[in-house]
Amino acid sequence: xxxxxxxxxxxxxxxxxxxxxxxxxxxxxxxxxxxxxxxxxxxxxxxxxxxxxxxxxxxxxxxxxxxxxxxxxxxxxxxxxxxxxxxxxxxxxxxxxxxxxxxxxxxxxxxxxxxxxxxxxxxxxxxxxxxxxxxxxxxxxxxxxxxxxxxxxxxxxxxxxxxxxxxxxxxxxxxxxxxxxxxxxxxxxxxxxxxxxxxxxxxxxxxxxxxxxxxxxxxxxxxxxxxxxxxxxxxxxxxxxxxxxxxxxxxxxxxxxxxxxxxxxxxxxxxxxxxxxxxxxxxxxxxxxxxxxxxxxxxxxxxxxxxxxxxxxxxxxxxxxxxxxxxxxxxxxxxxxxxxxxxxxxxxxxxxxxxxxxxxxxxxxxxxxxxxxxxxxxxxxxxxxxxxxxxxxxxxxxxxxxxxxxxxxxxxxxxxxxxxxxxxxxxxxxxxxxxxxxxxxxxxxxxxxxxxxxxxxxxxxxxxxxxxxxxxxxxxxxxxxxxxxxxxxxxxxxxxxxxxxxxxxxxxxxxxxxxxxxxxxxxxxxxxxxxxxxxxxxxxxxxxxxxxxxxxxxxxxxxxxxxxxxx
Length: 567
Ligand code: GLC
Description:
Protein name: Glycoside hydrolase family 13 protein
CATH class of the largest domain: Alpha Beta
Organism: Cellulomonas rhizosphaerae
CATH architecture of the largest domain: Alpha-Beta Barrel
CATH topology of the largest domain: TIM Barrel
Structural class: alpha/beta
Bound molecules: alpha-D-glucopyranose
Distance between the termini: 33 Å
Domain Glycosyl hydrolase family 13 catalytic: 29-442
Pfam family, one: Alpha-amylase
InterPro entries: GH, GH13_cat_dom, O16G_dom_2
């Protein structure tokens, strides 16, 4: 880890202009089934989202990313797509999508949609054709069907495990096996097949023609597999640390081998082709990589000038609540992104991880259990929220593009006591309950404290129950209330825009000691005290924003962040 004293002060230089929107945008993730329900069936939908878009405009974000709403049997909450060009009736119609896009653009919000190219649903016509056509057929070539090992082919073709637990292979009635890195209902596509490549370019065009501003690419590091699909004894997972790093930047983000199923060099050819597709469209369209790749220097390869525009910075999300560790990751993020001329991104929560308000309330603050349930360590809700607000104000003070996950502007914690019988995440079932899974961060949003289902749907029905404590988090309980989490987010987003912090620079200020992350971005000083003890502030600061109450003008309490202007 780099020491505080030897660090060069200027880490990232500010830009003269605002340039492309995705270099500095704050992008809000909408998880359609849990945002707002227009129909009353208890599951959020596109008309529900459209009706609530003014909330996002008022909040002050620049863009919206919609998780999948395509036709799907919902075996993995829509990340199992049966038809890439159709809206699932659960969420509405294509007309509803067009209306949503129109309204968003009217409100000045860009819209990014999710593309899931690593696998389809088992109900996709291609997979149904592959099952019907049998071994050796052209139809099977679009997926990864193989003969099994063992005398009667009774063993899987290799030893790969599914990310959701259990083997990554399922055997079909005629004896062949097919690969699925995720659920058995999510067969992996064969990206060596030219038809697969041309089909997805066509899907991109379908949504670009409708006017979307970009795509979030699901499992962007997974599509190409090492030839021969060799056995691999490593653990199949997301980010894991390693001591064997090639550079100081890589030392903080791990040097892990992701195995023969991830981050293969061949995947970049796909993104170069997609970059060319987007370039044929007017406007400023963007591709965003969901690539759980380490170290950061490998991630930077996805955002080279002729590939994608952004990649999620999961190294930041995965770092514990520890000032030296976070400083190192922040610095490494700029060094590696700057090396390819790409913007850095920041993210603390999404639909796959325990919300940061809950993670930061755990004994090991910031650790990442895969879900929290009955009998598990319960987070300290108050401490978690205090730190979450401090973490967000730190994040929004950083130049680059930032992602918010729906509900974090309300300070929502996970539902950490969901009854197991209500769980729906395949990860819960495939691990026999050893992992609680991701349902706790996917609970329908509370809009109105006094309404049934907290105003999520007109009938009060919600597909997962909301904790009773969420009344205090409802939007209408916070709107207009000074110091509420919602007003803190709103104020920070307005200031970030007015001060051009997204295109600003980062210069460390190391005067506050080891427990503090402090830097200047343009002429705003950001000071985050991650320690438990108060820290003394210089005299004469004008505080512009604060994540919590300040006792006086020169004391910054623990777990609190401020933005300030020097005298
Ligand atoms: C991504 C999605 C996650 C999904 C998985 C398989 O990681 O974010 O929700 O389960 O891909 O598509």
